[in-house]
């Protein structure tokens, strides 16, 4: 696939014209939402171009406690509530909060999401599903005990295995952060996020 450059808000909005983009997951995918000119905590709406972009955090486990319980939703349940279709894009990233837990928990969560994606694509095969993979972190010695990149790599391998062969697209955040000269950070620097958004929008605009 050819990757296009979307260097300004006009190019981004032209690509997203007529699209509904639902983003689910941790703060690494919220970075994408915020990159797309955030106008509210959970929603971007452009009436003139008929663009809707939403973001919602995934359900527990979460390593912070300041989100209202009323806002906690599981990604599989959210996907099951979508109609889908040619103008619908589903984006999710789920990994950052799972490192301290047994990998079986992560596998079960991904299997649940996979079943929801299967149901979505069965009822609306033209829906675009994009998965943002895990990326390298910047870690202190104490953080490495529970959030080391080795743990994260295991999660990333599981994610790729669970969705292998499915009609989904990946944005390989692991390789993109590994290859870049910027320091590793759970929230990659803006140039890296820009590269990721270019891939996402290239998927959308060549759909």
Automatic annotation (TrEMBL):
TM segment ranges: none
UniProt cross-references to InterPro entries, sorted A to Z: NXPE4_C
Domain NXPE C-terminal residue range list: 5-205
SUPFAM superfamilies, per the entry: SGNH hydrolase
Superkingdom of origin organism: Eukaryota
Name of the featured protein: NXPE C-terminal domain-containing protein
Source species of the chain: Labrus bergylta
């Amino acid at each position: 696939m050819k990757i296009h450059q979307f260097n300004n808000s006009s190019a981004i909005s032209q690509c997203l014209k007529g699209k509904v983009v639902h983003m689910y997951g941790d703060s690494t995918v919220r970075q994408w939402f915020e990159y797309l000119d955030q106008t509210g905590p959970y929603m971007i709406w452009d009436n003139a171009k008929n663009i809707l972009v939403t973001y919602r955090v995934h359900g527990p486990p979460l390593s912070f406690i300041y989100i209202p319980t009323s806002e906690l939703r599981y990604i599989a349940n959210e996907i099951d509530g979508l109609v889908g279709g040619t103008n619908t894009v589903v984006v999710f990233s789920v990994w950052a909060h799972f490192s301290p837990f047994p990998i079986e928990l992560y596998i079960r969560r991904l299997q649940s999401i996979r079943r929801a994606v299967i149901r979505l694509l069965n009822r609306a095969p033209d829906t675009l599903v994009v998965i943002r993979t895990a990326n390298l972190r910047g870690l202190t010695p104490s953080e490495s005990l529970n959030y080391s990149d080795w743990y994260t790599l295991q999660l990333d391998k599981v994610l790729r295995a669970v969705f292998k062969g499915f009609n989904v697209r990946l944005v390989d955040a692991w390789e993109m952060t590994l290859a870049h000269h910027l320091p590793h950070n759970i929230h990659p620097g803006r140039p890296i996020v820009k590269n990721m958004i270019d891939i996402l929008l290239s998927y959308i605009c060549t759909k």
